[in-house]
């Protein structure tokens, strides 16, 4: 097994995927609904996932995959010790549908359930975030670091409205905004869970949390934030559980703990 080789193959596929997203973003799209009318999938989501899975499995037939669109078509996500690629072919599908240039492909490789590498690529504005375990994180080849901010009142916070119409989930989002807006520097919701985490990794934001995300939304962001010196935990405190649908990342443990104290919790269905 050569992680370096896997890295080279994955990077090439991520760039090919980026070319598809870039070419399609300002063209008419074939759009379908998934769990509800704001949970969308396009032909390009499916095309990118097929390209990535095809490219890896033709070289490494024993590798496994957890892909957003293959899971949506009925395959239950299963994380085993086998080398497993966790793929979000287009994160920020709603942005992609509208032509908002904040959208990306997100890919992570786990071996023995440990994340070895993560890629988040926004091909529209050319932001390529990469991390490998123990080797740091980079943006377009340059090392990145979290801001190190510790204080809630100086923090720029990111979160998402999510892609669910569940009234209890929407109420939790609104309750948390009501609590946090008066306490932080500002709140941003840009429409991509993976890119939110990369904003924390590069020091452009200080904290991000979301309930109701999926493992493909944050597996790559998790290693990118940690390798940039940040922390990624469960929003109630304690270790991150990749299959829990819950994530909180921050520029420091002090700040993460401050947010934990404030949050109204929500426990979505597990992946
Ligand atoms: C979604 C986006 C959105 C977040 C959702 C994700 P998708 O992913 O990241 O910002 O709020 O939780 O599922 O559907 O665009 O791949
Ligand atoms: Ca996603």
Detailed description of the structure:
The protein is an alpha+beta fold and 271 residues long. The protein is built from eight helices and 14 strands. The chain has helices at residues 3-24, 43-59, 68-72, 93-98, 167-180, 193-201, 215-227, 253-262; strands spanning 31-33, 40-42, 64-67, 84-91, 104-111, 114-122, 127-132, 137-139, 142-143, 156-158, 186-188, 207-211, 231-233, 246-250. The strands form three sheets. The chain has a seven-stranded mixed beta sheet with strand order 3-4-5-6-7-8-9, sandwiched between helices. A five-stranded mixed beta sheet has the order 11-10-12-14-13, with helices on both faces. It has a two-stranded antiparallel sheet with strand order 1-2. Helix 1 (3-24) packs antiparallel against helix 2 (43-59) and helix 6 runs parallel beside helix 7. The longest helix has 22 residues, at 3-24. It is globular, with a radius of gyration of 17 Å. The model has no long low-confidence stretch (mean pLDDT 96). The structure holds D-MYO-inositol-1-phosphate (IPD) and calcium ion. Calcium ion (CA) binds next to strand 4 and helix 7.
In DSSP terms (H or I, runs of 4 or more residues), the helix count works out at 8
| Residue runs with pLDDT of under 50 for 5 or more positions | none
Computed over alpha carbons, the radius of gyration is 17 Å
Q: N-to-C terminal Cα separation, in Å?
A: 28 Å
Bound molecules: D-MYO-inositol-1-phosphate, calcium ion
Number of strands: 14
Give structural attributes.
271 residues, alpha+beta, 7-stranded mixed sheet, 5-stranded mixed sheet, 14 strands, 35% helix, globular, binds D-MYO-inositol-1-phosphate, binds calcium ion
